[in-house]
Amino acid sequence: MNVLIVGSGGREHAIAYCVAKSPKADxxxxxxxxxxxxQIAECAPIGAMEFDKIVAFAKKKDIDLxxxxxxxxxxxxxxxxLEAEGIRTFGPRKNAAIxxxxxxxxxxxxxxxxxxxxxxxxxxxxxxxxxxxxTAKMPVVLxxxxxxxxxxxxxxxxxxxxxxxxKTIMLDKKFGSAGNEMVIEEFMVGREVSVLSFVDGNTIKxxxxxxxxxxxxxxxxxxxxxxxxxxxxxxxxxxxVEDFCNKYIYxxxxxxxxxxxxxxxxxxxxxxxLTEAGPKVLEYNARFGDPEAQVVLPRMKNDILEVVEAxxxxxxxxxxxxxxxxxxxxxxxxxxxxxVKYEKxxxxxxxxxxxxxxxxYCFHAGTKENDGQIVTNGGRVLGITAKGKDLKxxxxxxYAATEWVEFANKYMRHDIGKAxxxxx
Length: 424
Prior knowledge:
Dna Ligase, domain 1, single chain, about 30% helix, 5-stranded parallel sheet, about 30% strand, 9-stranded antiparallel sheet, 4 domains, alpha+beta
């Protein structure tokens, strides 16, 4: 079949890598893609939010299946636009993608259906939010309601910080219209775990666990980013935790969306906090995580196209989802200055070293080709991923592979998964 992938990051490169391994795939396309994806797919310079152009491109290329990787087009209704033209598409429709598109909606859903999460209140009036904070226990978490590239969450340790946070989100509009509404929730203590899942509207099949590192600097310091690295699996995601989540979180979420008349087909990303009182939902995403996809998908044994089609057709219950008994670590190579200000267009060297390296992957995030030379084109440039028999070996392999690649303003964290190394 002819497959079209929508997106331009490391997540979409990981998806394209898996699609390319499928015997079902004939021709692979990507819009807009990047320099890495262009090595396995035909890319076209169409933006992910240019719905009319994407639909026209899919028709012109006789696309049999579209996989939408990014959050913005999902929340904006790209799946609806493609399905309206009879084009099979993997991802939630607009009325289901609201699970990620509105934190206020998702918190209200969890409250209504008794899905464990942090206590919270929603606000559209900054003055009422400030009044509420006077009686709130610190620290608190402030969340912009809408999409904010994974950066619209502020942890505030004092009342003064919280007041400044309300100003940042609701008055200064640092995250744009995403801050028109805001969630204030209790600060939860525990270990974070990410669990991605395939969903067909009724059935849910969870993937192997992972853990992201959001902060820009070592020791979880600095600004929030889209993710500086990740590892899989999480040793803290035990059978006991999984059983609890299966019973009270995963299926409950799928059933809740169906009951609300918003059946969800695609990927639900569960951001979990393992608290003393049990696992609770930090957030939902309506797509593969980035960089979580870079460590989860290479460990999946299944043909991704078979799983994706089962989600579309409502036959996911017939799929035996399996993952390799090993580990993977992804270290993001970023442009120095990310996530604030950084240069682009810097030549990247050493990428050819990954061509024949078994168990090592270089997923492109912010790259483009310029006169035959691959150059940097974003804050997060590459996701260097490696497998190993356990997390310690995978981590050592990934960091060794980061030395294969050079560009002038290369920056990375040096402690991805280190806390796990130290704990084991």
